[in-house]
Design a protein that fits this description.
Length: about 210
């Protein structure tokens, strides 16, 4: 299992969390390793545009695209989820994303930002990512930007995307399961036992 190192930070906490969930983990930017691994985690902290610059510097968007074309699992976390959308807008500056999903990531409309702390989510009943977790389970969020709409009806591998929502001032996309491409806006690696359970759910899907 590979965690993609593209200068986004937060790599070691993600590495430790995935190891605790039961996986052998390599943190690397090597494209061959990232393509061939059973699973690829794309973390991300900071600004959308900076993360995209880092991702492109290691051809990360191409690695993601090739993996998905072959049905190979990818998990995006926080800004690693946001960059999967077509574009991001921060402080009036628009940046192009990896474009795996339609839509724009922009600033939440809320009285208090960033959205920092524990929050519940509304997952579909048939979610595999949240299987075995109670509806009132809380996850740890740190963000001011999010995808506030979901515009994709038919997903990867011909499967209907499963979209999980949360609310902070307004509804936003908290997680997506879309064929081999899964992602969370919250931080599983900072979400204690709930996050570990969720990561195990993802790892259990890897062939």
């Amino acid at each position: 299992m590979v965690i993609l190192d593209y200068g986004s930070g937060n790599l070691r906490s993600a590495e430790r969390a995935v190891e605790r969930a039961g996986a052998d983990v390599e943190v690397t930017a090597d494209p061959h390793a990232a393509l061939e691994a059973d699973g690829l985690v794309v973390p991300g902290v900071g600004a959308f545009s900076a993360c995209m610059e880092g991702l492109r510097s290691v051809s990360g968007e191409k690695i993601i695209g090739k993996r998905l074309a072959g049905g190979r699992p990818v998990l995006g976390i926080c800004v690693g989820m946001q960059i999967l959308f077509e574009r991001g807008v921060e402080h009036g500056v628009e940046a192009e994303g990896a474009g795996e999903w339609p839509g724009t990531v922009d600033r939440l409309e809320a009285d208090v930002l960033p959205h920092m702390g524990w929050n519940t989510v509304r997952a579909p009943e048939d979610s595999r990512l949240f299987a075995g977790l109670d509806a009132d389970t809380r996850f740890y969020f740190v963000h001011s930007y999010a995808a506030r709409t979901w515009d994709l009806d038919s997903g990867l591998a011909g499967q209907q995307p499963k979209v999980t929502w949360a609310n902070h001032g307004q509804d936003f996309v908290a997680a997506v399961e879309n064929g081999p491409l899964w992602a969370t806006q919250f931080h599983p690696e900072k979400s204690g036992d709930a996050g570990a359970h969720l990561l195990r759910n993802w790892l259990n899907t890897l062939a």
